[in-house]
Amino acid sequence: MPRSIYISGGLATVALLAALASVAACDEDPPAPDEGATPSAAGDDPNAPISAGEPGLGVEPSGRRVLRAPGLDGWEFTPPSAVYTHEGEGLVGVPFHVAGEVYTNASANHEVLGIVRRGTAIEIGRRAFGPGCDGGAWYEVKPFGAVCTTRGFNVSADNGHSDLWVHAPDETGSRPFRYVKAEDGAPRFFRVPTAAEDAQALDAQENGGTWPEAVDSPMTGVYLLAIAEEVEGEAGAYFRTVGNRYVRASDVEDKPLVTMRGEHLGEDVQLPLAFVYFEDRPLFEIDGDAVREVGVAQKHARFPFVGERTVGGVAYIEGPDGIAVPAEGVRVVRRLARPLDRVPTDAKWIHVDLAEQTLVAYEGDRPVFATLVSSGKEGYDTPRGTFQIGEKFVSITMNGDDPVEGFYEVEEVPWTMYYWNSFALHGAYWHDGFGQTRSHGCTNVPPPDARWLYHWTTPEVPGGWHGVRRRRGTWVHLTR
């Protein structure tokens, strides 16, 4: 299904759309109403956080045992890519389009190598020469690529490149922006409306009247927005979106922080590893043929896989200390042999198990990270096979139509890594239902884990760039 591509919150230029045609965003499953995040929880001491690798068992004052999910407490984020800071020497390049295009070399006939958002500076090298920059000049970009001064970039020694309406992503946390869900049918404005325009928009929204000229469009369907700032207007508070549109603060609600996260693997945490998914599950102890319920296993808790046993016709996944959880509520992450015919000996690669809805990152034959994912639901199957990541974006907007929810638009989907056509691994900030299928083909990854994968995988995105397109990056192996 054809979709618009939003690279930086606004509609990308026609040239960029054509250049990135193969990067079209996959249709994402719209978020379920009021689906929130999993609360952070404690460890063996009910009031203390769990350290990674521990089984997460605690005991309540009542004596009930609890297998707790770790949340984000103590989670260490990979440092973001360094952003270029101009020190007053040499040349600096600043986009004058919403998304400035970096080409593979000095020729407009060559493909777009990456994009830089307006308001961001990149380091420029020496003058380059080639066709396609009529009325301007080509310059080399460090560390690679070329830009044209009449095709998206100003080049000078001036450091005055700030642009007040541009909101840079925060790459230090699991989400680069603040996200909200809009009320169905609420107006989206070109600018902060006057009190009269706001009143007219409210009448149109509630009674079907005429929309004022200040309205860009009514947001009919499911709209998830990325917020830049809050501003005051004559009729009250508004939010300016990253795409430079305005919505009433009263028409949106915040999407809570998703606290599901995976596990770094090593000596202390190894595969196979069991994750509790979908909801809290009863926790049991098994002694021979006797099964006794002793507490609860929280959603997204994890424990080392010891074995599987069936008692009384019910299958259980067993963990250490005699605990067991019904198998229907557990996803088991298992080690997979490297596909020798495709993935080189020491290469980084990612295995997505579509049957178990799990993901494992490998360095050669060594698993280094594991988590839960959500891939394509029935009728929107995620492809099987072995591919390589070719395009990566800090964030990109996706939209489409859903047979149940209708039109939806999801702004600034974070940590997006395309591996084949419109299929990608990316962060999903709108749900915490990881471990079960729900998308329209892409693989939803918990935002903290998507961020880790984004910085761990290749191609590397240079500091200050918002996206890059370089073939033959990290391998992605999808099986069922």
Summarize the structure.
This protein is mainly beta and 480 residues long. It has helices at residues 14-19, 195-207, 447-456; strands spanning 57-59, 65-67, 91-95, 99-103, 112-117, 122-128, 138-141, 146-148, 153-156, 178-182, 186-189, 215-219, 222-233, 236-241, 246-248, 252-254, 263-264, 273-276, 281-287, 290-297, 302-304, 307-311, 314-318, 323-326, 330-333, 348-353, 358-363, 366-372, 385-388, 391-402, 406-420, 423-427, 443-445, 467-469, 475-479.
Q: How does the major sheet shape up?
A: 12 strands, mixed
Count of distinct strands: 35
- Span between termini: 25 Å
Report mean pLDDT, rounded to a whole number: 86
Q: What is the 3D form?
A: globular
Low-pLDDT parts are 1-24, 33-55
By CATH, the superfamily of the largest domain comes out as: L,D-transpeptidase catalytic domain-like
Helix content: under 10%
The proportion of residues in beta strands is 35-45%
